[in-house]
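Example for tutorial group B:
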């Protein structure tokens, strides 16, 4: 019976043209920019707001995550009121206005308010950027497509991080102009995104449904841990690299862009990785993260570059893996069930990362230890590895077609 249901879902997947597929992927280009895009400028922003608490400055990167989480929890009822094109258009307009609007303000609290509105916009865009792939394409194609989605996400990080780093050398607030890139996706949505009613595909779903969380908890908890670990990098790298090795903003930007380039190419080949390493790919993300943060504990430029490359590999493998297995399990309704949960977990990990990591680092290793956050990262990697073993070790993916 279960096989028949899967068969029906695959048959029901609607064919889409190349322009529609590119439009869906274009939204993936933007989601990473919510926080990580301005990470290279964080040192300059911190210097500008020198009178503000350090944690408040870090929230400039992580604040959007809080509102993304709340928005994701209400995505299903919203999808019953608005069709996909209206949701995407609203999200992208808010994205452009709130993101680029930070260019015009010089008060950190107003800045954080605009970053919160930016979070609402990404909360609308994120489930569509992955959920529509499950809506339109059968399970056997989803590993490749989720890899491409992750690759586009990283490409957005490459372009945005490079531009933000260069713009920040003019003045700190110029970094926020990178959010004008949302105009490209907005035009593509108007031209090519089909106007679907996703909410009607899952009539019984409601927000805050514990049954959904229990069903998908391995992927949701995995995404939470993965993002907590990854976000140690953008919230600490610029400050630590500058104080520890005296690196200039331009060089730090190149290294951070290099991480996104690595993750981009890993995402491009993810379908092949899933095909050849089906039984072991589940362990790749925690292991590569572990090696990356361990490399950071050796204060040399070479180990800094190596660690960044390893973290890029981990992120490039971990996100599409979790999205793929969740979308296969969620089926055609993924856009309104598991994908909002994964998106919420992703950004919850980003939001709580500095809240957990910074105090834990100071408590365990002292405030003077610059590598303390990376040591906390090593501990979190071990926890992630244990979580993967106990929730994934006895499971396998559906056989290749």
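The residue assignment follows.
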């Amino acid at each position: 019976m279960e096989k028949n249901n899967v068969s029906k879902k695959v048959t029901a997947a609607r064919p889409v043209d190349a322009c529609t597929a590119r439009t869906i992927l274009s939204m993936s280009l933007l989601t990473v920019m919510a926080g990580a895009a301005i990470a290279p400028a964080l040192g300059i922003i911190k210097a500008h707001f020198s009178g503000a608490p350090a944690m408040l400055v870090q929230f400039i990167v992580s604040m959007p995550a809080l509102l993304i989480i709340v928005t994701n929890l209400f995505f299903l009822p919203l999808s019953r009121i608005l069709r996909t094109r209206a949701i995407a258009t609203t999200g992208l307009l808010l994205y452009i206005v709130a993101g680029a609007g930070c260019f015009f303000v010089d008060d950190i609290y107003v800045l954080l308010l605009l970053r919160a509105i930016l979070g609402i916009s990404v909360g609308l865009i994120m489930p569509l950027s992955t959920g529509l792939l499950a809506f339109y394409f059968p399970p056997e194609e989803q590993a490749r497509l989720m890899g491409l989605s992750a690759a586009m996400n990283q490409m957005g990080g490459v372009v945005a991080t490079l531009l933000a780093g260069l713009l920040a050398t003019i003045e700190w607030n110029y970094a926020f102009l990178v959010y004008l890139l949302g105009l490209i996706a907005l035009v593509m949505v108007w031209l090519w995104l089909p106007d679907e009613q996703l909410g009607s595909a899952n009539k019984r779903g409601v927000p805050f449904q514990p049954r959904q969380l229990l069903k998908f908890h391995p992927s949701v908890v995995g995404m939470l841990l993965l993002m907590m670990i990854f976000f140690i990098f953008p919230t600490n790298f610029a400050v630590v690299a500058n104080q520890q090795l005296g690196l200039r903003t331009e060089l730090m930007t190149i290294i951070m862009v290099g991480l996104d380039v690595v993750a981009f190419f890993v995402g491009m080949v993810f379908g092949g990785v899933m095909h050849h390493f089906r039984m072991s790919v589940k362990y790749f993300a925690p292991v590569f993260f572990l090696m990356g943060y361990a490399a950071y504990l050796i204060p040399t430029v070479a180990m800094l570059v190596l660690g960044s490359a390893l973290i890029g590999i981990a992120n490039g493998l971990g996100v599409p893996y979790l999205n793929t297995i969740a979308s296969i399990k969620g089926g055609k309704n993924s856009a309104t069930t598991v994908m909002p949960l994964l998106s919420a977990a992703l950004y919850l990990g980003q939001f709580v990362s500095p809240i957990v990591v910074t105090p834990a680092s100071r408590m365990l290793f002292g405030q003077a230890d610059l590598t303390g956050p990376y040591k906390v990262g090593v501990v979190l990697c071990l926890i992630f590895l244990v979580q993967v073993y106990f929730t994934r070790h006895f499971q396998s993916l559906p056989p290749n077609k």
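The chain has 18 helices and no strands. Compare this with the pattern of hydrophobic and polar residues in the output above.
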